[in-house]
Amino acid sequence: MNLIAARLNRISPSQTIAISTKARQLKAEGRDIISLSAGEPDFDTPDHIKRAAIAAIEAGETKYTDVAGTMALRKAVAAKFKRDNGIDYTPQEIIVSTGGKQVIFNAMLATVEAGDEVIIPTPCWVSYPDIVQLAEGKPVFVPCSQNNGFKLRAEDLEAAITPKTKWLMLNSPSNPTGAAYSAEDLRPICDVLLRHPDIWVFTDDIYEKLVYDGFAPATIVGVEPKLRERTVTMNGCSKAYAMTGWRIGFCGAPVQLIKAMDKLQSQSTSNTSSVSQAAALAALEGPEDAIDVMRAAYRERRDLVVAMLNEAPGITCSKPEGAFYVFPSIAGCLGKTSAGGTKIVDDEAFVTALLEEQGVAAVHGSAFIYPGYFRVSYATSTEALRDACTRIQTFCQGLR
Ligand SMILES: Cc1ncc(COP(=O)(O)O)c(C=O)c1O
Q1: To test the ligand 1 pocket, which listed residue (40, 239, 276, 377) has its Cβ within 8 A of the most ligand atoms?
Q2: Nearest CA to ligand 1 atom 14
Q3: Domain of life here (predicted)?
Q4: Dist. CA 206 → ligand 1 center (Å)
Q5: How many domains does the chain have?
């Protein structure tokens, strides 16, 4: 009898974690490695948030809370959705989970039947297909080209819809491309969805606060309130407040679905950490100047990285609206041979040779279901970014 259940064969370990592990290994061997593979802010959690957590511990807020989160936090989340997105949710329409990831996991496990289709625009975050498959659903990938800013076109969405379509997953700003949807971008997508009343929408807005040059981010229900009754509006503290380790994600959704997610969560993790919830309350209710500082640093780094990558022969890099990633094309590098003698047959060969020959770790596009590209995370110091981009230029100049 097999020890490991067949359901585990449907998923694979995170490829972004695999490349970070390889980079760490090389570093341990004494190699000079710069990692551009991180999916988290390099900033520390702001002080007032840390202090709120310490105060909560000292005040004895160290016990179970409601599964869906403390009432104070759910009210603060509802206020956030009103303030930032113009959406009215009651605390009963909110659940707080162990990171945005658990919100996605709960929503899929609570709703997807075997064979249900989930439309995932690509490039996509690595975990979406695996979570859908764990729930026995079928990911339906819709490629979104660089020419269209890596954004989903209404006609491509329409063409992907079948009677089995249960969900559309939408991520803005996007991991891995940084592309973000404006209200104008979302309007035609909402129009398609209005014509298909059985399809639910999951919007992953976890990078919402990280947008640059005055870009106004938008989310489905904010643009089309008629879709409120079949949308999960997901967000969290991980990226905006540099709180990845605290594990706070949340969503607003119709009560029927929130109850189902609450039931599932009650039999898995129960509430997320009470101390983290106190910290999240301080994050949502507190000043946002720390975010302004991070945003300014990210924007400067984005501009530096885009400019330097576009100087590397064979690479073309668009300038995205948000997040802390860029997703350059390596079309002009494919088929060539590196200075170290590796034939660049695909994006995986590119990132492997780049790591081995120049000590720069980045993630191949195939991990995001989009070959021919690679992801650079600029959530690292300007100095390291400048060094890494110079090495990428050297690598590309060496291709023959
Ligand atoms: C697009 C996207 N959604 C969700 C998450 C998960 O966030 P959390 O750490 O809150 O679970 C990530 C983290 O990398 C992400 O990039």
Answers
A1: 239
A2: 39
A3: Bacteria
A4: 7
A5: 2
Is 17 domain-assigned? Answer: yes
Residues 29 and 133 reside in one and the same domain: no
238 lines ligand 1 (CB under 6 A): yes
CATH of the domain at 98: 3.40.640.10
Tokens of 293: 């500082």
Residue of the CA atom closest to atom 7 of ligand 1? 100
Segments forming the whole domain that contains residue 177 = 63-285
Rg of the chain over Cα atoms, rounded to whole angstroms, equals: 21
Q: Considering the domain boundaries, does residue 58 fall inside one?
A: no
Whether residues 278 and 314 fall in one domain: no
Q: What is the pLDDT of residues 336-366, one digit of tens each?
A: 999 999 999 999 999 999 999 999 999 999 9
Residue 282: both structure tokens together = 């301080």
For residue 56, tell me if it sits in a domain.
no
Asked if residues 110 and 257 have their Cβ atoms less than 8 Å apart, the reply is yes
What's the pLDDT tens digit per position in 308-332?
Answer: 999 999 999 999 999 999 999 999 9
The rounded distance, in Å, linking the Cα atoms of 393 and 400 is 14
Cα(186)–Cα(152) distance, rounded to whole angstroms?
Answer: 9
Closest atom of ligand 1 to CA, residue 40: 14
